Amino acid sequence: MPDPDPRDALELGTTTGSPLMVAATAGVVALGLAVAIGAGPLADVAARVGTDLRGGDSYREAVLGGGGR
Amino acid sequence: MLLGGGLVVAAGYGVAGLLTSGDLLHGTVVHVELPVLPTYELPTSLVFEVGVLMIVVGLALDVLRTLGGEQEKMNAANLTMALLVGSLFSAGVYLLLSRSLVRVVMGVVLLGHATNLLLLQSGGRAGAPPVSGEAGYEAVADPLPQAMALTAIVITFAVSALLLALAHRSHELNDNEEVPTHSGPDEEDP
Amino acid sequence: MTVDQLLVSLPVAAPLLAAGLSLLLSPSPGAQRVLAITVLTGVLVDGVLLLQRADAHGPVVAQVGGYRVPLGITLVGDRFSALMLVTSTAILLAVLVYAVAQGSSESSVGNVPSVFHPSYLALTAGTALAFLTGDLFNLFVGLEVMLMASYALITLGATRERVRAGSTYIVTSLLSSILLLTAIALVYGVTGTLNLAQLSERTAELPEDVRSWLSVALLVALSIKAAIVPMHWWLPESYPPAPAPITAVFAALLTKVAVYAVIRTQSLLFPRDEPWLLLLALAALTFLVGSIGALAQKNLHGVLSFLLVAHIGFMLLGLGISSAAGIAGSVVYLVHHIVVQAALFLGVGLVERHRGTASLRRLGGLTSTAPLLSVLFLLPALSLGGMPPLAGFVAKLAVLRAAVGADHGLTLGVAGVALLASLATLALVARVWAEASGASPARSCPILIPGTPSSWGRPPAAR
């Protein structure tokens, strides 16, 4: 196995990221968990989105019906 | 309206930002107290950009005048225009397939022209210029495709400029502006 | 009424304005950071309010400039767009924090931050416009604003590798934009309007063949941006060289905005009652090519890029089923996919900083030297693979249940392919984990076969 590419080491360093970077990543991961925990409500909203998009009536009505509601 | 005005002003800034970023790509030392123009080092690229601008604007003006002018009895689907769009498209695609970035840019520009012509065609019959008070409602050409074509021209122009800047940068780095044969993400891998 | 208008317009207008301000503020990076984070937080709050309102009272509509419907620019916030807005803004905000942290700890980048923030804000505005617009041409403009900003971001620093990737990316995106514009011109030529609501009324009256041609033209144009398989070639080429936070945003958002556009246009303009064979076939192809491509990669970036492509197939499958349940599945999957891709690419960024490389071979020992990091990577990876308690499982279940519920031979077949793709993903996750928990970075082991006995036995969590 050859040595690690020196260019990489120069550009990126071999330290762990700053705590804030880890925190931001953790935040996104937590968001992913939140999606799993809130799967019920999310599925409900998605189901409503599905019926909305299938029909398209509410969309048409909102845009064309009252003008600017 | 205030909102519309704000959008326009902000979008102007945004475009200026893109142009500045194109400049920063050169790696010249820019003192960023004000977004001033740094010195360009390669005059050819500048000439190209000016040329592209002139082509775009010239063609746009020409087309707008032709379509908006006095040419009567144009059919909704004009055969000449359709042929022109078709040939521009094929020439554009041909250029796009070549390896040199400058040719690719030319191809992109041609494709952009073809689409703009098509946009104008989609507006149907030609008529008087769509300016309030000039002619009756019936005689006026459809203004919407013209507005869309203008937007599209601006976008194509900005991207062409950016691509040319990239081609220049690529030339600086590689001594040619061709797309390298292969260097995938796993090239660094032994 | 004014509150409604504000809610819908703000996500577009505020970031654009802030982009301009940020450009003027470029001498003081600190102010830029504060501005960007403030604006994004504001947009996030706005999005949540919009979602609540749209869910309770139906779509929120604003006519920009006060013109009547077919003349002016319409902004529509319905459940779908609001949901997408919330998800994407949350990700944008998190990635911004990450990027700021990286920027402050990595001072060598020099003049980059002064362009980064304005471009990032413009990207936000473009994304919001693409989600909220009620007009086909403005959809194009929104995508274009977003892409313009992404061009600036992907070529930041302009090293050789980035210039090469950037040119591929820009030319491809530009080509797809031109195709989209062509499709829009055709739609306008046939129907005489570009307002989505009006279009949906007029397309219903078109002859069958014209309708399907328009539908395919729009699909082809958008599928390049969405990296649907025959048009996916640019994605694994152009994403990896960019800095980690930028890759994360691209992977999480750009293709998904295009998928949103596909779902929006196809479901609204060309509603179908039968499963759409073309889209189902594309979905199957996407699964296969993405998974097989991912198995052949030696680099975490490459693996993730191909998996990203493979999982686009789930959203296509949901849409292709053409039922309310199928679309709902696609929507859940969209949300999940945005979040999980961002998490994975950010995680890879951290790994890369830790290790100095993202090569699969040099991951060994990661679990012992950086356990937190490994967990942060493992969770979203398992979610992507569809492990039961995680979001990926929920999303996959929603799509697959709709596919089975459609009771059509082809949807069942494609669902089978989807399961295969999920298995491939899991195998890859297992392989990555096996590498990461291996003994030392310098160890060499056969990695091309995911099922080598030595790598199977080791990680209990990966099975």
What is this structure, in a nutshell?
The complex is a heterotrimer of chains A (69), B (190) and C (463). Chain A is an all-alpha fold and 69 residues long. Chain A has helices at residues 6-12, 19-37, 39-55, 57-65.
Describe the structure.
The complex is a heterotrimer of chains A (about 70), B (about 190) and C (about 475). With about 70 residues, chain A is mainly alpha-helical. Chain A has a domain at about 40-70. Chain A contains four helices and no strands. Chain A is elongated. Mean pLDDT of chain A is about 70; it is low at about 1-15. Chain B has about 190 residues and is mainly alpha-helical. Chain B folds into two domains: about 10-40, no CATH class; about 45-175. Helix content of chain B is about 65%, strand content about 0%. In chain B, helix 1 (about 1-25) packs parallel to helix 5 (about 145-175), helix 2 runs antiparallel to helix 5 and helix 3 runs antiparallel to helix 4. Chain B is elongated, with a radius of gyration of 20 Å. Helices cover about 75% and strands about 0% of the residues of chain C. In chain C, a hairpin with an 8-residue loop joins strand 1 and strand 2. Residues about 105-110 and about 440-463 of chain C have low confidence and may be disordered. At the A-C interface, helix 1, helix 2, helix 3 and helix 4 of A face strand 1, helix 3, helix 7, helix 10 and helix 13 of C.
Notable features of this structure?
heterotrimer; B: 190 residues; disordered N terminus; disordered C terminus; C: 463 residues; mainly alpha; two-stranded antiparallel sheet; 18 helices; 75% helix
Number of helices of chain C: 18
> What overall form of chain B do the CA principal axes indicate?
elongated
Query: Could you give the order of strands across the largest sheet of chain C?
Result: 1-2
Please, how many helices of chain B? 5
- The quaternary state of the protein chains shown equals heterotrimer
Roughly what fraction of the amino acids of chain C lie in strands?
under 5%
From the N-terminal CA to the C-terminal CA of chain C, the straight-line distance is: 54 Å
Query: Proportion of β residues of chain B?
Result: under 5%
**Total separate domains of chain B:** 2
Q: Compute the gyration radius of chain C: what is it?
A: 22 Å
Topology, number of strands of chain B? 0
Find the count of extended strands of chain C (DSSP E, 2+ residues): 2
Query: Residue ranges of chain C: pLDDT <50 for 5 or more in a row?
Result: 105-109, 441-463
Structural class of chain B: mainly alpha
Low-confidence stretches of chain B: 1-57, 59-76, 182-190
Helix content of chain B: 55-70%
Q: State mean pLDDT of chain B (0 to 100 scale).
A: 60
Tell me, rounded to a whole number, the average pLDDT of chain C.
82
The most extensive interface between chains reads: A-C, 53 and 88 residues
Global structural class of chain C? mainly alpha
